[in-house]
Amino acid sequence: MIAIEITQSGGPEVLQPTERPIPTPSPREILIRVHSAGVNGPDLLQRKGLYDAPPGASDIPGLEVAGEVVALGNEVSHFTIGDRVMALIPGGGYAEYAVADERTTMHLPDGLSMAEAAALPETFMTVWVNLFQRGQFKAGESVLIHGGASGIGTTATMLAKAFSASKVFTTVANAQQQAASLALGADVAINYTEQDFVEQVMQGTNNQGIDVIVDIIAGDYVSRNFQAAAMNGRIVQIGVIKGPATQVDLFPMLVKRLTHIGSTLRSRSQDDKAKIIAELESNVWPHVRSGSIKPLIHRTFPLKEAAQAHALMESGQHIGKVVLTLLH
Questions:
Q1: Cα–Cα distance between 107 and 324 in angstroms, integer?
Q2: Are 324 and 301 within 8 A, CB to CB?
Q3: 229 and which of 64, 233, 294, 312 could share a cystine (Cβ 3.0–4.6 Å)?
Q4: d(CA 7, CA 140)
Q5: How far apart are alpha carbons 240 and 327 in whole angstroms?
């Protein structure tokens, strides 16, 4: 099969097509003929040598795929040959075939294309875990989503709105992303190149601050999040695009009784991931089937143009997800 490998740590140009053996599914795995594969922030970190694949996982990047089941392990009970599926995988998505544990594989909800389905597992699971499970978001609370135009940001905006946030704030990089974020359901989209998000959320909440903050940025945003948070606010750290927080004033955290937590999805057990999927199927899939929530696709690239897909992601100019597609 054709796959995209990371030839060495570096820029997008280190992603190169290669030939690899088609993987063989283990007893609880299925083999998927990949139609589309999502591109995610962790893929970029892995390419740079900053986020190694877990032990036993493929060194090929790619954490989510959609396609057709072509082979089954002998203990698989929930899928049959020919099923149209999407899956969260620990690696191996940038390829013509990928294996997935049946516990982290889902049948395609009606109304989704393969490209949309490939844009769903990693992002929707990450948002569900961090905004709803760990961030304990409840209807009527306010939410601030940093990186509002990213795959995570657009998904979090749609889900916060669907589950009755009192007010959704996002931070974005330009006027085009601002308009797109508002169209997705944000009440206030803050252009961080021109506006201070702490000032904007305080103005927009009558100086009460934000109940739940979802942050993929880190760096100096950590202290500013503490300033922007409401009493008993929760800050969920799911990315560190700006790197370490070198100077953090913890006093607002104490005064406001804040909770600052973080998590990654990739290292969780398959059973943990299966529980997340079960919650998504109960709570979110009805919105997906009705068409009220759908992954936002910015652009698709052929598999062999994975380097160009990464370059676009790093430019920060995308709105929604970038997806690799394979023609069969």
A1: 20
A2: yes
A3: 233
A4: 48
A5: 34
User: Which tens digits make up the pLDDT trace of 52-96?
Assistant: 998 999 999 999 999 999 999 999 999 999 999 999 999 999 999
Copy the structure tokens of residue 214. Answer: 């979802």
Domain end (from 227, 262, 297) = 262
Domain contains 127 = no
Look at the chain and report how many structural domains it folds into: 2
**Could you tell me if 244 and 279 lie in one domain?**
no
In 128-269, alpha helices (H): 151-162, 175-184, 197-204, 221-228, 251-255
- Look at residues 48, 13, 107 and name the one whose alpha carbon lies nearest to residue 309: 13
Q: Which helix (H) or strand (E) holds 236?
A: strand 229-237
Please report, to the nearest 10 degrees, the dihedral formed by the alpha carbons of residues 181, 186, 192, 193 taken in order.
40
- Given 3-state DSSP classes, what are the helix, strand and coil percentages for the chain, each rounded to the nearest 5? 35, 25, 40
When pLDDT is averaged across residues 102-128 and rounded to a whole number, the result is 94
The count of other CB atoms within 10 Å of the CB of residue 18 is 12
pLDDT digits (tens, 9 = 90+) for 230-273: 999 999 999 888 888 888 989 999 999 999 999 888 888 899 99
Structure tokens at 145: 């989503």
pTM over 0.90: yes
